[in-house]
Design goal:
Blueprint: H1 2-20, E1 37-54, E2 64-80, E3 85-89, E4 92-101, H2 108-111, E5 112-129, E6 136-149, E7 170-183, E8 188-198, E9 217-231
Antiparallel strand pairs: 1-2, 1-9, 2-3, 2-4, 3-5, 4-5, 5-6, 6-7, 7-8, 8-9
Length: about 230
């Protein structure tokens, strides 16, 4: 994921510098921002992590999380409020994978849990843009989202004692990010980077309150980073 972020930043800077040094560009799709409604789609990458809260400071150390880059795909619907403000609805499908390592076990099958999540994400966002500068326009974006985790195992009667890690199916997140709109000849292209922060506790504790996996956990929340490329 680090390489993807570096690639994104390189693309971001090169496009910005190219646009900046073109002092009198021919304006592409000059009336694009005058439309009340706007549509598009996005593709991208994600990296999800977990933040654990403990009932007591663990003597054997924190739970370890190994993250893997996932992918995003979705649609965009936008309503223009004024020259600088837009409300956006971006339903999408997000696939992510995390590996959790619990300390204190000599058996790898008991210590390691692979958490594969497929989220259907429904964010409602406010996009705040600057004045258009030639064929580019920076923006910040943020809002709240409901995420349905199809791989949660919430309804499973099995728990970690049987090798099943359980999470909540219904989740609520905050999202905040920034990007730049680039006005190309036929469409608008916008790379952006966004952080996601879960509001609710996503952990389903094991059936045994003294479980060596979840007995000392007071909560677990997702933290993540999205890199999206939108086409409108």
């Amino acid at each position: 994921m680090k390489n993807i972020i570096l690639l994104f930043l390189g693309l971001f800077i090169s496009l910005t510098m190219k646009a900046q040094f073109n002092e009198k560009p021919v304006l592409n799709i000059a009336t694009e921002d005058e439309k009340l409604l706007n549509w598009g789609y996005f593709l991208g990458f994600n990296q999800y992590d977990f933040k654990f809260n403990y009932k007591e400071v663990p003597d054997i150390g924190d739970i370890l999380v190994s993250t893997t880059a996932g992918f995003n795909v979705g649609l965009i619907g936008e309503v223009r409020l004024n020259k600088f403000l837009d409300v956006r609805f971006e339903p999408g499908l997000f696939y992510a994978q995390r590996t959790i390592g619990f300390r204190g076990f000599s058996d790898e099958n008991r210590a390691i849990r692979e958490v594969k999540s497929t989220y259907i994400n429904f964010p409602l966002l406010l996009k705040v843009s600057t004045k258009r500068i030639g064929n580019w326009k920076p923006f910040v974006i943020g809002g709240a989202a409901y995420a349905l985790n199809l791989g949660s195992n919430e309804d499973s009667v099995d728990d970690n004692s049987s090798g099943t890690f359980r999470m909540t199916k219904n989740n609520y997140n905050l999202e905040l990010g920034f990007g730049i709109d680039f006005y190309l000849e036929y469409f608008k292209f916008a790379p952006s980077i966004r952080g996601v922060f879960a509001i609710n506790d996503e952990l389903i504790p094991d059936n045994d309150p003294n479980s060596p996996w979840t007995g000392n956990l007071d909560g677990m929340r997702t933290r993540g980073v999205f890199i999206n490329f939108t086409f409108e």
